[in-house]
Amino acid sequence: MAKSEKIIDKNIDISNYKGVWVIAEQRNSEVLNVAKELIGEARKLAKSVGSEVTAVLLGNKMDKWAEELIKYGADKVVYAEHKLLEVYTTDAYAKVIFELITSRNPEIVIFGATTIGRELAPTLSAKINTGLTADCTRLEIDLENSNLLQTRPAFGGNIMATIVCPNHRPQMCTVRPGVMEKSQYDESRSAKDKIEKITPTLSDNDIRAKVLKVEKGNMPEVALEEAPIIVSGGRGLGDAEGFKLIKKLADKLGGVVGSSRACVDCEWIDMAHQVGQTGKTVRPKLYVACGISGAIQHLAGMSDSECIVAINKNPEAPIFKIAHYGIVGDLYKVIPEILTALDNVEDILQAFKKLS
Amino acid sequence: MKLKVLVCIKQVPDTNNVKIDKETGTLIRKGIKSILNPEDKNALEEALRLKDEIGDVFITVLSMGPNQASVVVKEAIAMGADRGILLSDRNFAGSDTWATSAILSSAINKIKEEDGLDLIFCGRQAIDGDTAQVGPQIAQHLKLPVISYVEELKYSENKVLVKRAIEDGHYIVECPTPVLLTAVKQLNTPRYPNMKRIFETFGENPERPIETWTAEDISLAKENMGLNGSPTRVKKIFTPSRKFEGEFLQGNLKEVARQLIVRLKERQII
């Protein structure tokens, strides 16, 4: 670097940048759910700035998925097809997306905040020299100046910060899976003339960090983001054994097991179960928090749940502030009662009807 | 040939123990302990592990922050690093991840030009910002390859073999050096600093004194540093509002459980 090298130019004309882009991430040649959620969100943003949603898909033999992205709500799809794009590598993906962005100048580019998106997006922000906001939980357009308002939890989830990128384009951000709502799948949306298939110039030499093998993990299939019902355990369980009771309740309700960070830190349960700022963001129909006090970093991951039930010994626990139904008591006494009650749902409803 | 390793570290507030002022809804910063960011510790440990294994390894730690951040650089030296550099200057204040990575990579470039570098380690993310951006951004500024979420590392002659975590498994990645790697906590268990080195490092005439570099020591233009050099701005900070008022279910536990079932049924959840 030469002395006093300037690497960023502030004087760009931001009015030259148009369109909302979603980088549609795929694994094993299947588009991830988060991409569908991002398209849903991008549609809202595009509507307020009066532009279109473009989904960008990188892969190999994924024509069918390119069409699907239109049905999920994208106005256009740019599909870059290449054998070397089948499995993600930072070098190849960054090269292709960099060329697309710098030649077409989108106004907004959104990535999923996955373990891959969180590597690809910062690489591109440094390559393009523009701003990037990580792990957003809310996106809006500032109607005064069309800037993207990017809100994210900060300081371990203890506060929220709204970030803007006023003088650089594109405005880029990553959004956590499970945070945004998918737009309605519309079978009738025709993909005709809406898919632009390109063949990027790529060779083995472009890729320095090469993926030799993809290993499917022995991680349990938790799929927290997809589960309609989650029963989560926290420090109040006291030990790893406590998750057996949590699992019992989750099984009975037809849900899956979640956890607070404390339990993962204590190694009572695998990280794949963690809900919160550093774990998964979820919005199930029912979230049962057992022995979870409700640190803001946990709330950041589940407070959008449709119905929250909290069980905690401490009536002052912050979790009760966001719970629809609070039960003050020892979870080891409360959960067995709930399990019994779940065996007798009809009787309980009958009895309740008589009373009222 | 000596292996040259650089580790980027950050001093962070211990966000696990943050309290919120109930009256004002703001963060109580007073009395929060500052620590060496946990995953940066894993990054450093991996460099130290290589040193244990290979022997001929020289480890430089680099941090950016106010003067008091020299404590974590000293901690790193007490753990076994050979050289510590703190980037500290008013011009750096208010940097976002882009500007931070530009400053750090300008300093790394200087070290690289003087002595060469084979491996650069960063923690995947810092617990105060949780962005995971600075590592990949540094790599890009330096035009080096990056591998993040590193859970296992093998180094052998000018290349690394890495187990990189993804949501449902791993990628096995091979890459020639120099390369930038970001460490997650599964990578290793950081060691405790050596007592003798603690006394030595924190004492009056340390054998390895911390070097402090300012904006003058690096080649990056001042207009690319700090708040003015940052593409992003914080527009607003707020504590999440919780307007919602729930209902405590009352009575003995049996009644409570029954009430819950009725409520969930009404909401058509069960």
Question: Care to give the gist of this entry?
Answer:
Helix content of chain A is 29%, strand content 25%. Chain A is α/β, with parallel strands linked by helices and 356 residues long.
Descriptive notes:
The complex is a heterodimer of chains A (356) and B (270). Chain A folds into two domains: 14-206, Rossmann fold (3-Layer(aba) Sandwich), CATH 3.40.50.620; 224-355, Rossmann fold. Chain A has 356 residues and is α/β, with parallel strands linked by helices. Chain A has ten helices and 18 strands. In chain A, helix 3 crosses helix 4 (117-128) and helix 5 (242-253) runs parallel beside helix 9 (331-343). Helices cover 29% and strands 25% of the residues of chain A. Chain A has helices at residues 33-49, 63-71, 90-104, 117-128, 242-253, 261-265, 296-302, 319-322, 331-343, 345-355, and strands spanning 20-24, 26-27, 30-31, 53-59, 76-81, 108-112, 132-136, 138-141, 148-154, 159-164, 171-175, 195-198, 210-216, 229-233, 256-259, 286-290, 307-312, 325-328. Chain B has 270 residues and is α/β, with parallel strands linked by helices. Chain B has a single domain (3-224), classed as Rossmann fold (3-Layer(aba) Sandwich), CATH 3.40.50. Chain B has six helices and 15 strands. In chain B, the strands form three sheets. Chain B has a nine-stranded mixed beta sheet, with helices on both faces. In chain B, a hairpin with a 2-residue loop joins strand 9 and strand 10 (159-166). The radius of gyration of chain B is 23 Å and the shape is globular. At the A-B interface, helix 3, helix 4, strand 7, strand 9 and strand 10 of A face helix 3, helix 4, strand 9, strand 10 and strand 11 of B.
